[in-house]
């Protein structure tokens, strides 16, 4: 009964929010204000669906002040957590598409993107959301987000889909960065404010002027890069299909392949405060580097969960996965049989081919 | 009428005996041909809409009738040449089991188990165990890798790699011969050709599935012979204590056994087998037979007491019991026949066989027994013994007669009403269906339930599956709105507590779509583009059981945490709600197949039938009482104790955590049907005494000496006989044993304590008015 009631209320609220945001699209700030009033309702009834915590999640992000953690995924699911070790709450979502990325512009302003070229915005640290963009006809998802500052940002997606905003998400303009229209999966900015984008067909792009102009880099690989990671030392690491990892120490002019003991695709990466670099991806593959990303050791998960995003919260690394948000080290202890299997016999699949 | 019948029966007694002998020989022969017969379909409530869905779609998607065989390495993992050798042999052995639908056999060695792998520029795939598998270390490593790629960990391979699974569907009717599958034989073969053959110090075999359950139930049911012997012995002793004569003890037992033989013989003649579930019928027939036999012997003994002997005493007994005996047996029969209301074949079979058995008792115990008694000459010695024994029992009757004193009667009735209310209060919470995990028919610690626990621990497959069938337009699986609707349904259902996971073509298509996009989970969606969608769907073959040949029907499988009634209710309600809100001309969501679909339907049928059944059984009993005694008060005196027992029975079931289901529902009807005997015997006797002008106390004292005495004995006899079941290997027999024991005892107490108390209160005012 209570579940039903909660569901119908959630439904009503979602409709309200959608209608409201549709009418008030002209001002994100105003939407935020309205959102805040709805948020009161929201917090009282934000019961977590039984399976939402186990849903397919594709991205997780933590606010710059480390006060808020957000994860997004299946059926428009938005999960929010306020403190380390606190409970996840499911936030009313104005969409039911698969959300693929979430990014904080600052502590309050958050953007999320997903399928049907959907973009959502929040101005209250993810408590309430409004629909900013949606274009089912495009038949393309957004896959990654990058902000130079709270006003200026990029949303990158499939088939070369790129939108840019200069007003904090209020209006968006199409940009054309890559000729062949590759899926653009990963984006990273270096400490010296270069921006790297990685994607399909080995696509690697670089901008040195905050996204004004882009250079297509010579790629060492023609497979797909799923992510890019800029390290504090200035190096850039790109990674993707079937455990391919490349590193550049010269702002993308040259790339070196890093041989790693992994056959599964790598989807996400993170540099920790102590300089440890972690890469993670399909089939529970986890790689760890203690030498600033020059070599990696496998630390695969026994449960073989596909890991899609990484954040560090209070010194602990968490991953969004196909089964909710999980602590990264959660199951490495038992990574015996399966880790060995996927690591030692990386090319076993070729026998069957 | 009675007199004419009496004259006929006793004047032609030699001829009648001859007929009985011939019939017994014939039916005894038929009885020896009787086979244990178990079927899956007769457990299904085929009239229920869910089962219509099941019947329509079982061809395409198989039904609820799977077997699962887990081959487990006791130490280490499965990646040894020996293990794979065994697994291959077991897989081959499964192919050759009778009734196996061979295209549904799945194991690491079957070609329908494949892996898909994403490489630069597309897919690659192959059989998990390659065709050239030799068992070398390199081969094993290949398989290990393929297993991971195929995503069958948790399904065909244990999560900790310690076991591998073989699954297959059974077909109930052989398509070529049209013969019915013998589940018990399948179960025996599973035991002999698989478990015994391949189980070793290194390897353990766990077998699950309906066929195994039936086999184990049949095996457990074989203990019934022992219970029957124990019951027979206890009954003999009790009856002897009552009759103080071996001849008078053996005759009713003998006649009751004849009744059982006839009943089983008739069953065979009608083409039924004896089902493990309906093994209770012979017990009941025997018990009811003894109950009536004891009344007859008692009436005969009364004649002897009064100095009448042989044929005259037998005739008197025949005369006095023919009508109440008939009425009592008729009400038993009606009670059993109300079970026909429950549209589940196994219960209906039980109703028919039990009714038959009871009708047979009319012949054996109301006709044969008095004829046999008429040949008995009891000497003076017997008369002395019976007097002595009667004297010893006198204090008991004195005590019981107190219940006819208004000062005792009033509190008695009040206590009864209080008890009834307590029973009602407790019983309103009665669970429909199963209240525990595992197979409820078997003991929690049985091999089967331990196997279940092992398999659910090692694998992540649910054994409790509710399949919702989505019927849509032809090629519906490449229509975005249809697939998106299925996806939404699945997502909604996965949020319902009790749903562990889900599986459907939509879910697989999402993963395949991600596969076409190099495996990135960001592409686990139903693509809007029709070409892309058909690309995502086409790799899934119909043998997966996720779609039919023209893709117009797709099941959504919901794996539940357990099959407790409340879990089922919750999930089914959520799915029904969804169907109501979302059915359109594009797609309909139809419940339900899978074992939980069957359980849900059964629970609903049982729930719906229970009140109807009780209503009919009580209506029938009331009507019979009214017809017999032509008095509302009399009927009231007989029915109220029965109603009290029914209420307390419900309370007891709730208290013991026994759910109302196929096996326990009949008990309610049986309890009423049999319980009414006592009331009728006691009341008809008492009525006669009252009409002779005796006071109620005196009338009751006299009644007790004859009918009451017999009721006490039969109540105890039946209760003790049925209570042997509590020791059964089968949980449902143990449950039935507890409930029937309680019902017999409670009915007996109701008849000898509450009935006179009620009569006292109800009949007193009339006497005053008359005075």
Overview of the molecule:
The complex is a heterodimer of chains A (353) and B (771). Chain A has one domain: YVTN repeat-like/Quinoprotein amine dehydrogenase (Methylamine Dehydrogenase, Chain H). In chain A, 15% of the residues lie in helices and 35% in strands. Chain A contains four helices and 27 strands. In chain A, strands 1-2-3-4 form a four-stranded antiparallel β-sheet, with no helix packed on it. In chain A, strands 5-6-7-8 form a four-stranded antiparallel β-sheet. In chain A, strand 15 and strand 16 form a beta hairpin. In chain A, helix 1 runs antiparallel to helix 2. By secondary structure, chain B is of the alpha+beta class. Helix content of chain B is 64%, strand content 9%. In chain B, strands 2-5-1-6 form a four-stranded antiparallel β-sheet, with helices on both faces. Chain B has a four-stranded antiparallel β-sheet with strand order 8-9-7-10. In chain B, a hairpin with a 2-residue loop joins strand 3 and strand 4. The longest helix of chain B has 40 residues. The radius of gyration of chain B is 32 Å and the shape is elongated. At the A-B interface, helix 3 and helix 4 of A face strand 3, strand 4, helix 5 and helix 16 of B.
């Amino acid at each position: 009964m209570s579940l039903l009631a909660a569901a119908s209320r959630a439904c009503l609220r979602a409709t309200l929010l959608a209608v409201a945001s549709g009418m008030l699209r002209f001002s994100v700030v105003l939407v935020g204000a309205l959102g805040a009033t709805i948020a009161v309702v929201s917090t009282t009834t934000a019961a977590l669906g039984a399976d939402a915590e186990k849903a397919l999640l594709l991205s997780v992000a933590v606010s710059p002040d480390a006060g808020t953690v957000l994860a997004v995924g299946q059926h428009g699911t938005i999960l929010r957590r306020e403190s380390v070790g606190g409970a996840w709450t499911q936030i009313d979502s104005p969409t039911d598409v698969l959300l693929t990325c979430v990014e904080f512009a600052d502590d309050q302003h958050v953007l999320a993107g997903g399928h049907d070229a959907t973009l959502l915005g929040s101005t209250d640290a993810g408590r309430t959301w409004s629909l900013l963009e949606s274009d089912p006809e495009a038949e393309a998802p957004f896959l990654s987000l990058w902000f130079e500052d709270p006003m200026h940002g990029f949303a990158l997606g499939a088939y070369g889909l790129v939108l840019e905003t200069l007003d904090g998400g209020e209006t968006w303009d199409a940009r054309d960065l890559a000729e062949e229209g590759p899926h653009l999966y990963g984006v990273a900015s270096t400490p010296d404010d270069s921006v790297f984008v990685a994607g399909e067909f080995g696509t690697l792009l670089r901008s040195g002027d905050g996204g004004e102009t882009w250079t297509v880099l010579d790629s060492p690989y023609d497979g797909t890069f799923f992510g890019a990671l800029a390290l504090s030392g200035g190096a850039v690491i790109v990674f993707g299909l079937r455990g391919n990892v490349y590193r550049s120490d010269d702002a993308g002019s040259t790339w070196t392949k890093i041989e790693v003991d992994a056959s599964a695709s790598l989807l996400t990466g993170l540099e920790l405060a102590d300089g440890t670099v972690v890469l993670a991806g399909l089939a529970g593959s986890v790689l760890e580097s203690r030498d600033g990303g020059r070599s990696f050791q496998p630390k695969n998960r026994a449960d073989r969960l596909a890991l899609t995003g990484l954040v560090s919260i209070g010194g602990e690394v968490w991953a969004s996965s196909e089964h909710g948000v999980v602590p990264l080290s959660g199951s490495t202890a038992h990574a015996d049989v399966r880790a060995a299997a996927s690591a030692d016999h990386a090319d076993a699949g070729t026998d069957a081919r | 009428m009675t007199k004419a019948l009496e004259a006929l029966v006793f004047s032609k007694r030699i001829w009648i005996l001859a007929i009985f002998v011939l019939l017994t020989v014939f039916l005894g022969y038929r009885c020896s041909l009787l086979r244990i017969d178990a079927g899956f379909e007769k457990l299904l409530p085929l009239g229920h809409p869910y089962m219509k869905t099941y019947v329509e779609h079982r061809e395409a998607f198989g039904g609820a009738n799977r077997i699962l065989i887990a081959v487990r390495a006791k130490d280490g993992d499965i990646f040894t040449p020996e293990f794979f050798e065994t697994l291959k042999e077991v897989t081959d052995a499964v192919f050759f089991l009778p009734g196996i639908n061979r295209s549904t056999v799945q194991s690491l060695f079957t070609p329908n188990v494949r892996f898909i792998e994403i490489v630069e520029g597309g897919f690659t795939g192959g059989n998990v165990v390659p065709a050239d598998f030799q068992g070398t270390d390199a081969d094993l490593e290949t398989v290990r890798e393929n297993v991971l790629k195929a995503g069958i960990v948790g399904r065909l391979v244990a999560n900790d790699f310690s076991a591998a699974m073989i699954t297959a569907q059974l077909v109930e009717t052989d398509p070529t011969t049209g013969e019915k599958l013998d589940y018990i034989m399948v179960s025996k073969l599973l035991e002999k050709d698989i478990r015994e053959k391949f189980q070793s110090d290194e390897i353990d075999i766990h077998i699950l599935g309906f066929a195994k359950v039936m086999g184990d139930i049949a095996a457990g049911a074989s203990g019934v012979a022992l219970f029957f012997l124990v019951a027979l012995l206890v009954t003999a002793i009790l009856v002897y204590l009552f009759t103080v004569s071996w001849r008078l003890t053996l005759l009713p037992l003998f006649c009751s056994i004849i009744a059982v033989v006839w009943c089983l013989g008739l069953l065979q003649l009608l083409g039924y087998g004896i089902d493990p579930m309906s093994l209770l019928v012979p017990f009941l027939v025997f018990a009811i037979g003894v109950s009536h036999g004891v009344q007859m012997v008692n009436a005969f003994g009364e004649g002897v007491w009064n100095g009448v002997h042989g044929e005259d005493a037998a005739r008197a007994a025949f005369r006095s019991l023919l009508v109440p005996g008939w009425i009592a047996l008729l009400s038993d029969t009606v009670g059993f026949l109300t079970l026909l209301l429950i549209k589940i074949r196994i219960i209906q079979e039980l109703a028919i066989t039990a009714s038959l058995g009871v009708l047979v008792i009319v012949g054996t115990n109301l006709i044969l027994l008095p004829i046999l008694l008429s040949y008995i000459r009891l000497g003076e010695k017997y008369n002395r013994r019976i007097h002595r024994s009667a004297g010893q029992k006198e204090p008991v009757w004195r005590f019981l007669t107190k219940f006819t004193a208004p000062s005792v009667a009033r509190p008695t009735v009040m206590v009864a009403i209080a008890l009834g209310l307590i029973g009602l209060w407790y019983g309103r919470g009665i669970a429909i269906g199963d209240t525990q995990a595992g197979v409820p028919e078997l003991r929690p610690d049985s091999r089967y339930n331990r196997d279940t626990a092992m398999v659910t621990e090692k694998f992540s497959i649910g054994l409790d599956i509710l399949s919702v069938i989505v019927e849509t337009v032809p090629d519906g699986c490449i229509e975005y709105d249809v697939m998106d609707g299925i996806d939404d349904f699945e997502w909604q259902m996965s949020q319902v507590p009790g749903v562990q996971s889900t599986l459907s073509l939509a879910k697989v298509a999402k993963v395949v779509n991600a596969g076409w996009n190099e495996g990135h989970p960001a592409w686990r969606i139903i693509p809007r583009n029709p070409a892309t969608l058909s690309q995502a769907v086409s790799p899934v073959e119909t043998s997966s059981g996720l779609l039919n040949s023209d893709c117009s029907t797709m099941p959504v499988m919901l794996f539940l945490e357990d099959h407790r009634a409340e879990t089922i209710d919750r999930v089914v309600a959520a799915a029904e709600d969804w169907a109501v809100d979302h059915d359109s001309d594009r797609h309909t969501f139809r419940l339900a197949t899978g074992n939980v679909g069957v359980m849900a339907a059964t629970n609903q049928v049982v729930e719906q039938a229970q009140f109807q059944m009780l209503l009919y059984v009580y209506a029938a009993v009331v009507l019979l009482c009214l017809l017999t005694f032509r008095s509302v008060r009399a009927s009231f005196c007989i029915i109220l104790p029965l109603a009290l027992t029914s209420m307390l029975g419900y309370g007891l079931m709730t208290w013991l955590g026994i759910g109302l289901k196929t096996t326990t529902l009949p008990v309610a009807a049986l309890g009423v049907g049999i319980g009414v005997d006592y009331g009728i015997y006691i009341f008809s006797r008492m009525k006669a005494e009252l009409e002779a002008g005796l006071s109620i106390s005196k009338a009751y004292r006299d009644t007790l000496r004859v009918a009451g005495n017999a009721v006490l004995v039969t109540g105890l006899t039946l209760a003790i006989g049925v209570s042997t079941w509590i020791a059964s290997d089968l949980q449902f027999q143990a449950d039935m044993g507890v409930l029937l024991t309680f019902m017999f005892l409670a009915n007996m107490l109701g008849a000898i304590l509450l009935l006179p108390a009620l009569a006292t209160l109800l009949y007193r005012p009339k006497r005053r008015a008359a005075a």
